[in-house]
Amino acid sequence: MNNRPMDLCHNGNDEISLVDLTVTFVRRRRIFYLVMLVCTVAGVGYALMADNTYRYTSLIQGAMVASDQPLTAPPALMATLETRWLPETKARYESENGRLPFNVAFENPKDTYLVKIITEAGENHADLVKRIHTTLMDQVAEDQTKDLDQRRNRLKKQIESTSDLVASLKKDGVTGEALASAVDRKLNLQLELSSFLPAKSLVIARQSVDPTGPRRTLIVALSVILGGMLGVFAAFFTEFLVAVRTQMAQKS
Prior knowledge:
The two termini are 27 Å apart. It is built from six helices and six strands. Strand 4 and strand 5 (114-122) form a beta hairpin. The longest helix is centred in the middle third of the chain and has 46 residues, at 126-171. It has 252 residues and is of the alpha+beta class.
């Protein structure tokens, strides 16, 4: 086959035909095969050697002020985790150890008041994942305990005030609706106080049974596609370089 490079420099309205492109590709097909083979082998090698990753899930129940009323709604709690406690936890870790080797995400399971803390990482990072998750859950519990204590103290003061009112009404011999209303209010406040539940950790860094990655088939498929694209580019770019070198040699 004629290995003379195709004249890629045209003047006027000259165009490179599809036949010329095909001939060029066939002439440089070895470069295409080589580049595609290298990319495919690299992709297969990575897919085989990459460590498995697993999903680690922690589950926290936020503090409750009633059976159907959380102290902080899950979306607001997740926003605080994402914008405050997670950045603070990452900053403390990275100041001593460098970049945190995984990401942390948050979810609210549908129709629940729970918050999931989710991380995908290799088994070699399992202890670190547990430590980070535990730190985040401890911060939630500590912060909500303070808020819950403040509400509890306010309710206790209201109960004491209402108790004093009931005692005063009884001392003055007041009966009927006024006394019943005061007693009822006291009972409602006591019931509200007894319904307070602190935040608690339900699950800590539970590892998924099956690995979540890497997606080896997808990696191989992408490496083949990328190899084909780079191979075509390399074939035509090589032809271009050879043509430029040939013209420079003719002019010198």
